[in-house]
């Protein structure tokens, strides 16, 4: 096992009908900015429940944070924070609203040009104070509710932003709030959670028994509940398992002490920025191709994945790995997610642009060993076009 620090201060408040507890979770006397997305929380009554739970406080609202939240939109929220002298932020929504709120929290107290916060990559941003924030999760996918990162869109790029100050103070996870999600968003969330897990698991072995077994448990749970959550939005147990898997897949637990890849995510972000493909769908497109082309580097963990997650024990190594990749693709397709880049209207002549964007964003040494060069990314993208 590799050395690690593990720190996670977020309180999780899990279960049905717990929004009323906002009254005790948010400091008394705080002036609260409630941030949300394009209107789903208004349509389905969540915003109303949130504001009435906070009724003894002064509450200001800021709606309109779009999927893949934009820097320019978030800077408008920063103006509201300053003008209204806000002292607590509450995100009500999916990953985009939570990530956007983290950015608002950091940018509000930053003395310099907040655009600089987008240029730090995986290093913590140089911010010393940030507004405290809480979240109410309406879409299980990103794990943003219990981690310290966010992804912000700006000028045709997507930029990770990290700070230890960005952990939410609390997150309310009420699985019933996810019942209104359209099936395509549920499927995106299942795939995103699956890929978060394998980015930290299908690398190279370091004898991290707990992390491996926990990752395998998350993957198997997703396979068990995936189709059920789509078939019946009111199946509480299925939703509850999905919600908790999404949180646990990216809160630092399974990633502590193990190598991490993130190639799929970094190339995926360029596909979202360039073609507007949903985050989860970019991952479903890329993962089978990445494993197909990187079998040698990942052989040990791919064989472990084949055996422990899919129960594949027959045949030679090559055919076991191929079967595991095929079963993974079939799982994503069974959720209604297409897994070839050409399914999203992307053509071969666009690959060069994606590779250039990766270079422009410094994504030139990806993977757990840094050996995914722009040339390797090009081969991955070419394979993903019609991936077999
Ligand atoms: O905007 P509204 O109207 O609320 O609609 C949203 C949005 O259109 C809708 N929605 C959310 N909850 C709903 C609902 N519709 C009906 N009922 C509900 N209960 O769903 C749509 C998508 O929402 P979004 O927040 O964009 O989705 P997701 O949670 O998948 O977040 C994606 C963003 O998170 C980033 C991605 O890059 C992307 O920008 N990520 C953040 C990570 C993190 N912070 O750790 C890690 C991830 O890998 C990811 O990169
Ligand atoms: Zn993701």
Automatic annotation (TrEMBL):
One of its GO terms (molecular function) is methylglyoxal reductase (NADPH) (acetol producing) activity. GO terms for cellular component: cytosol. SUPFAM superfamilies: Dehydroquinate synthase-like (SSF56796). Residues 187-358 form the Fe-containing alcohol dehydrogenase-like C-terminal domain. Pfam families: ADH_Fe_C, Fe-ADH. Keywords: Oxidoreductase. Residues 9-175 form the Alcohol dehydrogenase iron-type/glycerol dehydrogenase GldA domain. Belongs to the iron-containing alcohol dehydrogenase family. This is NADP-dependent alcohol dehydrogenase. It comes from Desulfoluna spongiiphila.
């Amino acid at each position: 096992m590799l050395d690690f620090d593990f720190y996670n201060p977020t309180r999780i408040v899990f279960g049905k009908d717990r929004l009323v507890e906002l009254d005790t979770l948010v400091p008394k006397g705080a002036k609260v900015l409630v941030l949300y997305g394009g209107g789903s929380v208004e349509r389905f009554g969540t915003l109303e429940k949130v504001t009435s739970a906070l009724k003894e406080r002064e509450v200001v609202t800021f709606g309109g944070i779009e999927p893949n939240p934009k820097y320019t939109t978030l800077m408008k929220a920063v103006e509201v924070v300053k003008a209204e002298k806000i002292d607590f932020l509450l995100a009500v929504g999916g990953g985009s609203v939570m990530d956007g709120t983290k950015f608002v929290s950091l940018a509000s107290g930053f003395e310099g040009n907040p655009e600089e916060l987008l240029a730090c990559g995986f290093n913590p941003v140089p911010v010393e104070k940030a507004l405290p924030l809480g979240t109410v999760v309406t879409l299980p996918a990103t794990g943003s509710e219990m981690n310290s990162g966010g992804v912000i869109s700006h000028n045709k790029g997507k930029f990770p932003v990290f700070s230890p100050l960005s952990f939410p103070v609390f997150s309310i996870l009420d699985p019933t709030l996810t019942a209104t999600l359209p099936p395509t968003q549920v499927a995106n969330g299942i795939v995103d959670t699956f890929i978060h897990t394998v980015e930290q698991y299908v690398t190279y072995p370091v004898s991290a028994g707990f992390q491996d077994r926990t990752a395998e448990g998350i993957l198997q749970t997703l396979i068990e509940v995936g189709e059920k959550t789509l078939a019946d939005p009111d199946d509480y147990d299925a939703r509850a398992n999905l919600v908790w898997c999404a949180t646990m897949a990216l809160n630092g637990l399974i990633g502590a002490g193990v190598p991490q890849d993130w190639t799929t995510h970094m190339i995926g972000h360029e596909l979202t920025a360039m073609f507007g493909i949903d985050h989860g769908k970019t991952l479903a497109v890329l993962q089978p191709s990445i494993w197909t082309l990187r079998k040698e580097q990942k052989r040990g963990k791919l064989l472990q994945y084949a055996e422990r997650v899919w129960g594949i024990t027959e045949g030679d190594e090559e055919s076991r790995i191929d079967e595991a990749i095929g079963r993974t693709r079939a799982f994503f397709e069974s959720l209604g997610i297409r897994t070839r880049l050409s399914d999203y209207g992307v053509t071969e002549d666009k690959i060069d642009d994606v590779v250039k964007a990766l270079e422009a964003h410094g994504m030139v040494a990806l993977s757990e060993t840094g050996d995914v060069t722009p040339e390797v990314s090009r081969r991955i993208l070419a394979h993903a076009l019609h991936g077999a």
